[in-house]
Amino acid sequence: MKVLVSVKRVVDYNVKVRVKSDGTGVDIANVKMSMNPFDEIAIEEAVRLKEKGIVTEIIAVSCGVTQCQETLRTAMAIGADRGILVETAVELQPLAVAKLLKALIEKEQPGLIILGKQAIDDDCNQTGQMLAALADLPQGTFASKVEVVDGKVNVTREVDGGSETVSLTMPAVITTDLRLNEPRYVTLPNIMKAKKKQLDIFTPEALGVDVTPRIKTLKVVEPPKRSAGIKVPDVATLVAKLKTEAKVL
Amino acid sequence: MTSLVIAEHDNASIKGATLNTVTAALKCGGDVHVLVAGNNAGAAAAAAAQIAGVTKVLHAEGDGFTHGLAENVAAQVLAVAANYSHILFPATASGKNIAPRVAAKLDVGQISDITKVDSPDTFERPIYAGNAIATVQSTDATKVLTVRTTGFDPAAATGGSAAVEVLTSVGASAQATFVGSEIAKNDRPELTAAKIIVSGGRALGSSEKFMDLMTPLADKLGAALGASRAAVDAGYAPNDWQVGQTGKIVAPQLYIAAGISGAIQHLAGMKDSKVIVAINKDPEAPIFSVADYGLVADLFVAVPELTAAL
């Protein structure tokens, strides 16, 4: 069974982003870019499924600028067998990415499609669910455990009050949550091997997909700043201030 | 212009998140209807009909809705979607699970986690873990939105008298079945609705110490319990206590963070709290940059002292 994993190139999670003073967006020039952390978890899960003999081939997909090839090489260094870049300079929004992935799953016919639950740049949390709907597939989102059993996939999901488990027919779309697994460190030999793995490049036009954005960004600003707080010397002072000054007790 | 709010409920009653979502819907302009899709959900539908500002409740019944499976609820929404200019879900685990399926089938974009409605097609939302606020405009005819509940006051639960219309329910999908769940049951206020939250970090060291130290403090304050990602990852607290960019977003009157360093991703989940207290033995911990009151102290001494002093 093939598994398709979608990976996004995003600003590294350690970077504290700066809003541009002209209000047009966040300054990402010369900022460190990395694979979206949830997508690393997705690749890792695919590799573990392959190690268990459930999956025979892992295809990593990334959509965007040509530098996404670096993200695909990282995916291949973690263990993906080959990569596909859908290259475009157009701002890609989740609906467009879902349509591109749908075109690819029609070509590749995977049994499982795994995505990160959200990208840490736009924080949308939409692409996996949109893909599932477009392809008429079931979904197991916010997965903390994935088990393939008797031709179906059981996904344990983190939900607001705890967790729940759903059983899905395959093909199915899974989105990963933080505790699904801990991604392995990439080793130098695997980085070298990844350079030689197959990487195909398509365009949205070749896949027959219109990726025109539907949502316009009018402006981007910093959030309101909190005024500076104070340090209190002891618990007694803290309690007094919470009662008389802050009036929250 | 008419909005449809997809209710979050437990068949017997409407959950608070629905009320904040109704407020957002009212700000979009036009009438507001509520969809209750459930199993033996008559009481929830009746409660929805009482929400101030709601003029119609659509009630769909079916086994497939018992556990709110996205495939089934989305299909039900789609059956009526053509009547609505705006379709809103609370940005809860359930809302986030279902909304994008609706948007994709309608071939429209979705705007997630709106914190403000500027006009019927323009909304504010946080990006980059809340380090930037984007004002975005939908160019689609139908707006599909998830609503960050901390951005909107709850509509009054009573005062409305909407008509309840029973819908023909869509059938359940054969592709997804519910197997089981582990939902914690306790008397504490729900984390996203609590007025006071006490939250523990990895410094607590073990789940026993987490409970021993934090529970009495929470009890004294009638507070909900939260945790940092590090504490949850280490097994000291359950996953549904996680506050942060990819966990729960909270904005209580009082947030007390004990042994939490204050990583960007944690701050994303709590920096809109009215008053923030930080207890940490590291004076350089980033949490102090957002704390109104910071106590540099060993939490194993300070937290019990605080509990006793209340």
Describe the SSE topology.
The complex is a heterodimer of chains A (249) and B (310).
Chain A: E1 2-6, E2 9-11, E3 18-19, E4 26-27, E5 33-35, H1 37-51, E6 57-64, H2 68-78, E7 82-87, H3 94-108, E8 112-116, H4 127-134, E9 139-149, E10 152-159, E11 162-169, E12 172-176, H5 188-196, E13 199-202, E14 215-221, E15 230-232, H6 235-244
Parallel strand pairs in A: 1-6, 1-8, 6-7, 7-13, 8-12, 9-12
Antiparallel strand pairs in A: 2-5, 3-4, 9-10, 10-11
Helix pairs in contact in A: 2-5, 3-4
Chain B: E1 2-6, H1 16-27, E2 31-38, H2 42-48, E3 54-61, H3 70-80, E4 86-90, H4 93-105, E5 110-114, E6 116-119, E7 122-127, E8 132-138, E9 143-147, E10 163-166, E11 176-183, E12 196-200, H5 207-221, E13 224-227, H6 229-233, E14 254-258, H7 264-270, E15 275-280, E16 293-296, H8 299-309
Parallel strand pairs in B: 1-2, 1-4, 2-3, 3-10, 4-9, 5-9, 12-13, 12-14, 14-15, 15-16
Antiparallel strand pairs in B: 6-7, 7-8
Helix pairs in contact in B: 3-4, 5-8
Summary of the model, kept short:
The complex is a heterodimer of chains A (249) and B (310). Chain A is of the alpha/beta class and 249 residues long. Chain A has six helices and 15 strands.
Shape designation of chain A: globular
Instruction: Please tell me how large the radius of gyration of chain B is.
Output: 21 Å
Counting helices, strands and paired strands, the structural category of chain A is alpha/beta
The proportion of strand residues of chain A reads 25-35%
Can you count the helices of chain A? 6
List the quaternary state of the chains. Answer: heterodimer
Q: What average pLDDT do the residues of chain A reach?
A: 97
Helix and strand run of chain A: EEEEEHEHEHEHEEEEHEEEH
